[in-house]
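AraC-type DNA-binding protein
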Amino acid sequence: MSALFDVYNVKEEERYDYWHELIFRYFCRVESQQLSDKFIDASLIWNQLGCLGLSEIRCEAVRYERSSGALQSAPNEDFLVSLMLEGEANMSQAGRHTRQKPGDIVFYDSARGFVYEFTKAYHAIVLRIPRRSLLSRFPGAENLTAVAMSSEADMGALVRSMMLSAASVDVPKDSSAASRVGASIVDVLSAALETQMAGLDVMDDRHASLLQRAKNYIRANIDDPDLNVEAVANAVAVSPRTLNRLFASEGTPVMRWLWKERLEQSRSILSEGRATQVTEVALNLGFKSVSHFSRTFKDTYGVTPNMILRARSH
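Predicted structure tokens:
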């Protein structure tokens, strides 16, 4: 049987606190921040399908954070899966970030910190799955948190259909039918996540290849003082935005990687005695100004290029 909770019969000044406690009771402890001027509309319909918890949520814009303090004070091992029906959200976990639009499915882990920010009023269906139940079917699930799955994809569409159907039926929570429905949903979800992982592995290989090609092009053209993001992107046949994302995956913007490579090559040339003049090194590595090269070199390595040359001459 379903349980319905809403804020309509709660005093307006107490509604947000009441909602915060519902989220803790049925999902996990989080720190939350109201993003709308007034907290007027919020409701939760909860159903238990065997080991699986299923809820339908309508709520104002809000930000949830599972902080280190919340992890320590209220440990939780469940996985959560959110299907967005209306609204938009940003999810961050384990160094990954995704934007969730209507129709997108996002998977996240209550055993680790996360930030889930709903930027406008939203309507969503959320599954709560015991950790062991999912990992016994798909051990790699932990690597797919904060990755959006589109319900337009075949497996995503199947997960979406099952979640919508399960939310629309009222099955006695202690019945064998409820347990079978819950187990079936976890089976389909684990298959969808496994398919998603396979697709990401292929994409990772392609991204790694593109990134290496871009780095090779930069090294081959490092003497060009006008080398920029657009030129490198054109050389490897991707957009500048895609190129920036590729380098961002390693934590270094394109141009910063370029300047770092120039400096590292210049230090190697000077240290190995392959040049006798600082000007020669600077110009051959794409620096337009020798004085700028010298200042940047000293800021990075603590010594000037001339100091390295003099040290080798003695």
